[in-house]
Amino acid sequence: MEFRHLGHSGLIVSEISYGNWLTHGSQVEEDAAKQCVAAALDEGITTFDTADVYAGTKAEEVLGRALKGVRRESLEIFTKVFWPTGPGKNDRGLSRKHITEAIHGSLRRLQTDYVDLYQAHRFDNETPLEETLKTFDDLVRQGKVLYIGVSEWTADQIARALKIADEMGFDRIVSSQPQYSMLWRVIESEVVPLSEKEGIGQIVWSPIGQGVLTGKYLPGQQPPEGSRATDKGGSAMIARFMRDDVLTRVQELKPVASDLGLSMAQLAIAWVLQNQNVSSAIVGASRPEQVRDNVKAAGVKLDESVMGRIDEILGDIVERDPAKTVSPATRP
Ligand SMILES: NC(=O)c1ccc[n+]([C@@H]2O[C@H](COP(=O)([O-])OP(=O)(O)OC[C@H]3O[C@@H](n4cnc5c(N)ncnc54)[C@H](OP(=O)(O)O)[C@@H]3O)[C@@H](O)[C@H]2O)c1
């Protein structure tokens, strides 16, 4: 495994981290979830990402059990707050009330006294930004949270938060968690330049396009049994990439990967890690063999001719519009 700093912070994270969205507490049984976490630890992954909302809070519980007994100081545990975790009007968003209640629930489920990174899962248009940032800052002072990050915020939202933090003396955001892959590059024009300037690192999600960039989904054919595209919870999430034009171009990447002696998943993960503003690529896995395949992307260098070949193959199916970074207009 290779390691990078989380933005300009002192925190070091594994270049490849393990996330449990759609898998733990949902698509995969607890046994398989624990095997994936064990494989991740065995392969040198130290950074784990989850969220209170995953599997209706069950994913945090599974991760807490899977990491039980592991030396806490050897792990970086990341979670998030924003999406609904209960039926009430205050069981969501980034108000002082919900953030405070949410961190207590997350710490209990994860069986830990603190999380290394606490992330605003989306921007809350119904709460004053000062209220959110002050609450996060209080959690840092209380030792419940070590660093603060955001997820799927626009460059403008991040810039506004930094300005307030600097004026008020609050802890600054150190990370941004956007979707980023060969297929989805919407952060490149605005979020990344601002982040480079401000010392914010990207912890990117779905670097393998939810499995699509492995090339296992063939155009015009049924998805393989047991894959995310056949999962009750996952199929709607992966649908945006399950188009024949996308799947056809992805098949054309196979010679690029094989010329380099890489699997398709490794090529996809290595691709996001070429961006030096990326601190870590969060990979998901439904079985331990996938984790063992994926970690081999750590430290892989892709030269300019390879990057150019990938761009030529994918052409206009790549999404680059920064306006695709959106949070709900009102609380969900
Ligand atoms: N902040 C946010 O809003 C947000 C949103 C989404 C995700 N995330 C974070 O990012 C993490 C990763 O997201 P993701 O799961 O979509 O990432 P991903 O790594 O792009 O996709 C993971 C899925 O692809 C398939 N796969 C992975 N490696 C494979 C391999 N070597 N061979 C074949 N198939 C393979 C597996 O699904 P199957 O085996 O089922 O096909 C696996 O569950 C999440 O767990 C979460 O922590 C954050």
TrEMBL record:
Residues 15-313 form the NADP-dependent oxidoreductase domain. It comes from the Bacteria. Gene3D superfamilies: NADP-dependent oxidoreductase domain (3.20.20.100). Transmembrane segments: none annotated. SUPFAM superfamilies: NAD(P)-linked oxidoreductase. InterPro entries: AKR (IPR020471), K_chnl_volt-dep_bsu_KCNAB-rel (IPR005399), NAD(P)_OxRdtase_dom_sf (IPR036812), NADP_OxRdtase_dom (IPR023210). It holds the Pfam family Aldo_ket_red. Keywords: NADP, Oxidoreductase. PANTHER family: HYPERKINETIC, ISOFORM M (PTHR43150:SF2). Belongs to the shaker potassium channel beta subunit family. This is Aldo/keto reductase family protein.
